[in-house]
Amino acid sequence: MTWSKALKDTVRTGLTIERTRLTPLVALRGACGVAIVIGLLLWLGSPELAVSSAFGAFASGLATFQRSWRPRPVLALAVAVGLGVSTFLGYVAAADPLVFAVLLTVWTLLAGMAWAVGPVSGLVATQTVAVMLVTVTLPTSVAGALEHAGLIAFGGLVQAALIVLLPIRPWGAQRDALADALAAEADYARRLRHDPVARFDPQPLMDAREAAELTPRQARSRPRQLGGPRGVAERIRPVLASLADPVLGAPAEGPERDRVRDLLAASGAVLDAVARAIRWGRPVRLPPEAVAALEVPETPILQGAARRSALRLIALLGDAVEATDEPVTTAASPDRPEPPEHRHLLRPSVPRLVPVGLRALRREARWSSPVGRHAVRVAAVALAGYALGSALPFGHTYWAPMTSVMVMRPDFGQTYSRGVARFAGTVVGVLVAGALMATTRPGAWVSAGLAVVCIGLMYLLMRTGYSVASACIAAYVVFLLGIAGEGWSQTVQERVALTLLGGVLAMAAYALFPSWETPRLRDRLADWARANGRYTLAVLGAFARPAERKPRRVREALLDSRAARTAWEDAAARALTEPVRHRGISRSAERAAEAALATMGRATMLMEAHLPDRGADPDPGAEAFATALEAALPAAVQAVRDRQALDWSGPRAALDAWRERAGDEGVAIRGTELLMDALHELETALSPGPRGRNRAARRP
């Protein structure tokens, strides 16, 4: 992609306004927190104190809107602590510009590294940098530093208290995640009726698993309705795929296929009903026609593996309905512990999260890491913006570095699109707010009310686009400064000019010191191939030695495969926005390799749906093929990285020998044939040059 095309795409993305579900009650609660802080300090203190302390309530409320599974009061309190510490340090160092510059650089570097822990941590750390920049405009003393740090933290305490006192749809995020996973499987079942090899995006299942991770405190109050259906949903997906597959399931046409279509339609209806019940905390209401379709006929229509899949599917759907119909508001009591399928996944508490974060920081503290490069980049830009803002003849010089810090992200697309959105939204916000200030000339209390309205609109509309949120924030700042008697015309000019400067610095920094994702595409692809291979080996090991099979090993390998696939898809999406080309893999080869690895994962999943019991006989063919695949996998993964030809001759010979001994019957051997076809497609897609590609295409 050329630079001109990349810039056009980022401008379009930054100015896009999306339709999304709004949460007016949650937005109103967040705005009330800001109103309480501004009103109390305007009444008991001074306009300057009200203006400076409003940032704490605003930033703490903003953090509670992020996609995090931790309790919202905990997020608000964590932001309050971070803002209080950064405020205190900023006040103490603000008297000496050189000392403050050093502190700002180090603090921004650490805030940039916080993205290694997760996006919510990165956002919170970014907010602490912003409040540190704001403090340089206020009087400095140790006592004043402590006072203002306490006022900033007070805003977070108010937001946390409101969340506790005014709960709005408790466990709503977890309910939505689990319901979305079940709804995605319902849609998958309906698509399988018309496309037996339809693809399924595992992201909803991954989100549901992440939402199911609980701290011990959360586990004591989690509704029982959220305990069981997720595990059932994980087991339903491979059964749906195996039932619909024309190789391992029912024939492509005939009475068996008609029966499969009826079962898939009924499964979609049942899963949708379960999803609705979980989302709103209500009993399950099943459509009568779906219940009738799931009844086992007296005369079996399906045969063999398809019949086993159908019976398994009916049983799993019954488990999902039964788990959802349990009490929705009572958690497990000590004398009645949750059954194994309802036990929660452990999420570390905030103190135990510290070593996890330190390990993440050590992992990303390297020159080649996108997070590490982002930290260096954002620290340099913050320092440059602070120096330039101080040199220019404007007030509020912190707006330039604050804009840079707020828009910069570890990837190109988000940084540039947010830079465009920030500037466009700021222009609109300051012009509208400035015009209103010029025509009405409101007093301090009216300005405070208008500021609260703007922040409420920001909370309400923030998910529609960053440009809309930026417009609301810009208007909020104009009205907020109006409380202290700032001239609106000067505020508008300064804000627009310094926002433009900060955005230009952020974009220039990424162009001069990039961390492109495109050159790493082959590494991401190799990681996915290796994870898929381990998943396949875990499943084949269960066929080879049923008495020794370990479901946990298969499960962990599946999760690793999903994580590698998600990492690849994220990297490929970011690479599409970058103005660089990968000389080692074309877009067509990239898509073909992605399809091949997705097929490889699907073939393994189909075999997983038919794992033998522990008492089944060992399969020597499966063991021989697994041994050959395990021997060939490391070299193949390295070949993907080094742009070399892949060699699957060992697994291919093992499959041929397996066919000679056992024929083409059996779930394992038919699934392995599908797997070998996927490996051949991967070999063809990544063959180095036309000669290698043609040579791979001629192989049987």
UniProtKB/TrEMBL annotation:
Record's subcellular location: Cell membrane
Cell membrane as UniProt keyword: yes
Integral membrane bound transporter domain segment(s): 386-508
Record-linked InterPro entries: Memb_transporter_dom, YccS_N
Domain Integral membrane protein YccS N-terminal: 84-190
Keywords: Cell membrane, Membrane, Transmembrane, Transmembrane helix
Signal peptide: none
Domain of life: Bacteria
Membrane topology listed for this record: Multi-pass membrane protein
TM annotation in the entry: 21-43, 74-92, 98-117, 149-168, 375-399, 419-437, 444-462, 468-484, 496-516
Region described as Disordered: 325-344
Recorded family membership: Belongs to the YccS/YhfK family.
Protein name per the record: Integral membrane protein YccS N-terminal domain-containing protein
Record organism: Streptomyces stramineus
